[in-house]
Design goal:
This protein has a 5-stranded parallel β-sheet. It has a domain of about 80 residues: Response regulator (Rossmann fold). With about 130 residues, it is an alpha/beta fold. The protein is globular, with a radius of gyration of 14 Å.
C-alpha cells in the first residue's frame, strides 16, 4: 500500500504554534502556511488539504470568520476538518456561536496545551470524525 502524505493548511502567524508545526512535520505531515485568509482561499483553488487551522481573528481583507463561511459553502472544501484558533479568550456563548455557525471541528482558545492540540489534530486526521464542543 502506498504511503500518502497528509496536507495541513495553517492560516495564522502565532509563534506559540511553531513547536506544534515542527512536531507535525516530524510525523511526515506537509504543512502549508499562509499569513492571511485571502491567501488561504487562493491556495485552496489549487491544492487539496486534509485539515485546516485558522486564526479566527487574522488581520487582512478577508477575516477568519469570512474564510470559514466560504470554506463551508464550497462543496469541494466543506468537509475538510476545521479548527478555529485564537490567541485571545472568548466568552463561552460567543465561542459556541462561532463553533456551530462555522461548523468547526474544534475551538482552540487560551489557555491550551500544545501537546493536547497535537493529539487532537492527529486524532482528527486518523479518524475523520467530527466531535461536538
Amino acid at each position: 500500500m502506498e504511503h500518502m502524505t497528509r496536507s495541513l493548511l495553517f492560516i495564522e502567524s502565532a509563534p506559540i504554534l511553531l513547536p506544534l508545526k515542527k512536531t507535525l512535520r516530524r510525523r511526515d505531515l506537509f504543512i502549508f502556511e499562509c499569513q492571511t485568509a485571502e491567501k488561504g482561499l487562493q491556495v485552496l483553488r489549487y491544492l487539496r488539504f486534509d485539515f485546516i487551522l485558522i486564526d479566527l481573528f487574522i488581520p487582512g481583507p478577508v477575516s477568519g470568520y469570512d474564510f470559514c463561511k466560504k470554506l463551508k459553502e464550497d462543496s469541494r472544501t466543506k468537509d475538510i476538518p476545521l479548527f478555529l484558533y485564537s490567541n485571545q479568550p472568548l466568552a463561552e456563548e460567543i465561542a459556541r456561536s462561532y463553533f456551530f455557525e462555522l461548523k468547526a471541528d474544534r475551538l482552540i482558545f487560551p489557555p491550551f496545551e500544545p501537546a493536547h492540540l497535537y493529539q487532537q489534530i492527529c486524532f482528527t486526521l486518523e479518524s475523520g470524525q467530527k466531535e461536538t464542543l
